Amino acid sequence: MNIHNKKKLVSFLKYKREFQKFGLKKVRSYEIVLHWLSNRLSRNQFLILSGILVGCTAGLAGVLLKTLVHQIHYWIVTKVHFEDQIFFYVVFPFLGIVLTTLIVLSIFKGNDRKGIGAILYEIAQNSSVVSSVKMYSQIIQSAVTVGLGGSAGLESPIAVTGAAIGSNFAQTYRLGYKERTLLLAAGASAGIASAFNAPIAGIMFAFEILLTGVVFSDFIPLVVAAVCGSLLSRILLQEDVLFRFYARESFDYHNIPYYLILGIASGFYARYFVLVFTKTEHFINKFKFSRLRKAMIGGAALSLLCVLLPPLFGEGYDTLKLLTNGDPSSIIENSFFGYLDLGSWTVIIFLALVCILKAFATSITIFSGGNGGSFAPSLFAGGTLGFLFAIICKQFGLSDVPTSNLVLAGMAAVMSGVLYAPLTAIFLIAESSQGYDLFLPLMIVSVISYLMARWFSPINPDLKPMVEQGKIFTNEHDNNLIYSLHLRDFIDFQSQTIKADAPVSELFELIKNGHKNIFAIVDNDNRLQGVLTMDDIRPYLFNKTADLPVNIQQIMKVPPAVVNLRQSAVAILKTFDDTAAWHLPVADEDDKFVGFISKSKILTSYRELLKDYS
To answer: GO MF annotations for this entry (predicted)?
Structure first.
């Protein structure tokens, strides 16, 4: 080791002692080694090494979660006959939501932010710093929810877990915002790749949803993380756990009309799905019940749906595999519909109800207290819709209907419209089915569904509330950087104030003894009444012949705008642009004056952040 590297290692050991002195963290030996490597390797080399480590860790987390849920689900669904399964469908979905809520309240102190929006929130509002608790909390919560029959998916919890792993790795080695965001995305990418055994889909997920403005040199850590996650999934998981579909047909361009119609139908269904999702959330949030009582009501509703329609139990991937094989009879015979004898109409009615109620089952699961995501539900609903469409076409006497291909295409289409992620959907289904010759139909249905979704709402309705509140921004790199700035960092809390009824002479003394160029005029309760700048005061300050006003109230001015502490940096900058001001007063929730905020400070910090990210 040369002298230069020895000095760096000594520096780190000193940092270790200082860090431990404050009791923040126990620094382990492997961390010393990795920190030493970070000083020996170039930036790109260390990021590739980081991508491998984050990818393997996130991949193992995904394997663990999928294995846990599969074992629980397998025992519940396959080890008992239908008559006994009714009992399980009544009890276990209810227990899943209630137990998850109890775990959140007792272990995680009520903190249950979940879904892809949670990752975007951390990127935009918390400089990509994710709590270390999320490295395991999502696994525990979603395993209980989905394993016991919650009608949701594991992919979003796996993505959040991977993102937390990547973020905490970057925090451990004190990497900057750019690298922290990149490794956060690498962890999420590895999680998705592990869940679906689809590395390209994991990479597309990171680029479409999490990252904007990543340079090509930073593409490699995402690739290696996704590959590591996918390889571990393929090596460690059993074949029946993997998200794979082998039954498909060769693409025939004569079947394009089928895909065009399915794309349109999927676009409408995706819109229905997200509307049910958001409306159910608002409906549940209206109730003033305790969280535990909401969980009990939601669990009871979910149990009832699972009794009536068993495919709503859990993720539903086993049902999808049966549909791609063209075998709906084994699905129906385990439900009350097995006692009906309506021919093909039994299948049509059954699948139509499954499609309609899947959106309700998923939203009830997630918003009443369970943990999961909409990845799996959108794929399940899309595959069911595709099979339903194929059955209806056959009912009308059409021949050579590509049933298994329509199931796969429906999965991609609905996922594209629900998640607003067409590339992720296309590559996910192509990789999972090894159906690369299906790229054309997958692109047709996914693009149609996505364009229809964007026509109904330019922003994903699931994320829209946070976008409107200024918590996240989903499609512009510059705005995401600005959102990472925090308002309190730019407020001058030492701003000078003066009472509105004070004489002007008191203001002169304030100017004489202070160094501010702008003053806040407040009442006795410190509520803002107006503002004064040096330009406003100068005529009275230097003109000895001017008649002085009796008090400050006679010369103060109404500010062009007042900034609220809850506003985002983007909204504040827009206010600055609209008012052409460079300083604006800030008020709290009680309209009391807090301080002045400077536009130049925000822009300077933004330029520094942009320089760090470039």
So the answer is: chloride channel activity
DSSP 557: B
Taking alpha carbons only, the member of 497, 498, 458, 457 closest to residue 476 is 458
Going by the DSSP 8-state scheme, the letter that residue 154 receives in this structure is S
Same fold, 253-290+308-464 and 485-613: no
Pairing of strands 563-564, 593-598: unpaired
* 393 contacts: CB under 8 Å, gap ≥ 6: 258, 401
Q: Which tens digit of pLDDT belongs to each residue from 478-530?
A: 455 555 566 667 777 777 788 877 777 777 777 777 677 788 888 888 888 88
| Residue 585, helix vs strand vs coil | strand
β-strand pairing of 518-522 with 497-499 = parallel
Alpha carbon 324 to its chain's center: 30
Which CATH number applies to 253-290+308-464? 1.10.3080.10
Give the separation between CA 214 and CA 127, rounded to whole angstroms: 16
Supply 422's token pair: 């067409």
Q: CA 15 to CA 399: how far, in whole Å?
A: 72
CB 585 within 8 A of CB 497: no
SS3 per residue for 401-457: CCHHHHHHHHHHHHHHHHHCCHHHHHHHHHHHHCCHHHHHHHHHHHHHHHHHHHHHC
> CB–CB of 262/390 below 8 Å?
no
For residues 24 and 306, give the distance between their C-alpha atoms in angstroms, rounded to a whole number. 47
Q: Give the domain 485-613 fold.
A: CBS-domain (3.10.580)
Instruction: Using alpha carbons only, give the angle 386, 387, 393 rounded to the nearest 5 degrees.
Output: 90
The 10s digit of each residue's pLDDT in 93-121 is 888 899 988 988 888 877 767 777 777 77
- Phi, psi values for residue 130, rounded to 5°: -110, 135
